[in-house]
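Minutes, project huddle
Topic: does the predicted pose make sense with D-arabinohydroxamic acid bound?
PN asked that the exact inputs be recorded in the minutes so nobody has to dig through chat later. Recorded below.
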Amino acid sequence: IQTSDIKNTVREIVNSTPVLDIHTHLFPPAFGDLSLWGIDQILTYHYLVAEVFQYPGVTYDQFWSASITEQADWIWDQLFVERSPLSEACRGVITTLNSLGLDAHQKDLKSLRGWFAEQEPNQFLDRCMELAGVSHIGMTNSPFDETERSFWENGVEVDNRFIAALRLDPLLLDWINASQQLRDLGYDVETDLRMLSVREGTVNEVRRFLNEWADKINAKYVMVSLPPDFQFPSEEPSSHLLIEAVLPFCEARNLPFAMMMGVRRQVNPQLRLAGDGVERSDLTPLRHFCERHPKNKFMVTALSQENQQELCVLTSKFANLHVFGCWWFMNTPSLMEDMTRMRLELLGPSFTMQHSDARIIDQLIYKWKHTREVLIKVLLDKYADLGKAGWTPQRAEIERDVQALLGGAFMEFCRADEPASGDDSVPYGVRNL
Ligand code: HDL
Ligand code: ZN
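Predicted holo structure (tokens), as shared on screen:
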């Protein structure tokens, strides 16, 4: 490709390459109220709730006792009328509305509500996926959430654009309550895991639970979010459950175990879902996972900017570790550009650039439009650097690189099969060259 039109080629390819969005909180409309979409939902997204509480005028109690419409009115007024929508979460609303053909500069929420009221959920989902260029949506599926559980138990139809992920936070971080929930669900588990003899029965029941739910939802990977000070191994229930149940289960089914590290839950409980914070993680547990469990596959994203470089270096040491996404407080243009540039420079195109973490279907549009803008910028820079070194990509090579970064590397990581030799000494993911 001539250097002159590489700009157009990269832009065209990035903008037209379908994305596998590996982590969201979205559900298809078949899940009823769990499937969120529309103007009042996008305006009351917890990122905007946290932002609006920086300004005076309403107490937590007044806000939480108001209707979602009143909450949205307040947020619209404070963040879009009284001030410019300069934050990433605010810009996202503007991008989304304009992409849907709605003039976001019109101040009239009433007419916007009227437009959304005319949309049909399934057609709206298709339109958002089309506008966002998303081919597959990774869900967050928790058997510990009774609303969601009831849909699965009653037999819900999930189309193949949706990928299930088995979310295990309660099991690994709140074993006291999770063990009670498991007993209520008919799994004969003991809460006290200190005695090995007792533990054996419990571990078998936990594995039965994991297998039954992985089958029920057709899980493609397993996920947990972890606090900054999470330790592994340890004398905590999480360590016993991971070593004796979860990791063997993942290995047996060739399921990656995904960790989202660094969230400090409920720093301000009065903000509810918006109340979580970030702290730098100790990544030692991650090194222990990779070195002690070479036949497991691990995926990681870190919430703190400070962890990004060491996470890249760790990823480059272990073939069974895959780094993904610019998670939550890392999902801003400046931080995303910084970490994507660093990842390309340290790892090459062997990682998953982004996941949207969308909670509302409409958000797919802005989360991916903003991501593609950054990817174009970073790729043009890196191809220019390569050009100076005497290597200019062909079109097919750009297409290959972009596909890898937007889901292809993840799919290859999932497919990487057991070493044919079955030789324990060969770490996972090391293909027989
Ligand atoms: O734990 C997680 O999966 C986080 O993504 C939380 O759901 C968080 O509330 C969020 O939506 N971040 O984007
Ligand atoms: Zn999430």
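Observations noted during the meeting:
- Residues 247 and 296 are 7 Å apart (CA to CA).
- The first helix runs from residue 3 to 16.
No decisions taken; revisit at the next huddle.
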